[in-house]
Specification:
By secondary structure, this protein is an alpha+beta fold. The protein has one domain (43-240): 2-Layer Sandwich (60s Ribosomal Protein L30, Chain: A). It is 53% helix and 12% strand. The chain contains twelve helices and five strands. The chain has a five-stranded mixed beta sheet, with helices on both faces. Its main location: membrane.
Amino acid sequence: MPPRARQRKSGLPPASWMLTFSDLMTLLLTFFVLLLSMSTMDRSYLTRVTIFTSDVSLMTVRAAGRIPTKMQVVIELLENPREAMRKQQRIKDLLFPDDIMPSQVDRALLEENLQILARDEGVALVLSDKLLFAMGEAKLKDSALPILERIAYVLAFMTAPVNVAGHSDMVGGRSDGNYAISANRAMEVLQFLQEYGLDNRRLSVSAFGPDQPLLEGNGPAVWNKNRRVEILVKTTPNIGGYS
């Protein structure tokens, strides 16, 4: 009798271990699928993750109420169109310092193809298509991403509305193709700014095709200047008349 008294039933069905085993196998399979998906992520997704990570650190700085000194100088210049025109090189040097720009960004190309112009509504950062796109394409080049990221970085510290406008050259005249490529390029830059984290309510987009040339005339030098994207920072609402 005593030996039988020591035998107790566990209260679990004989095959209960199989439930635990199946749960473990499900977790392992989920982990394997996750590893597989991570190994096949494309470059554009990784770029977005990088931009998001940098934006998180930027939001931390903004939440703490700190604006880097160099960016504060740039902001003050962008809020004064005449001063910005006079100090274009100063803005370029502060926005794109050599010590942080990656090697794929050609400094000479940047200097030649970035202009800072006064407009009625504020200051326009004018980027020729050589900086941003391959000939005839509307997808941003890899080398354009660090340039736009620096522009987005300073814009994130501001509250002014931002308009992204695409322009084409006159080759082919006022054809649908010229309007289409100017629109697609403007949208590509706008999407970059959105992904960086700028408030959609601040952003607008325009496409002018060949209707608003930067330079008049013909020839490759003129066409190169006219194919551009302008990022207009609307810092003078009293002139532009927007709300």
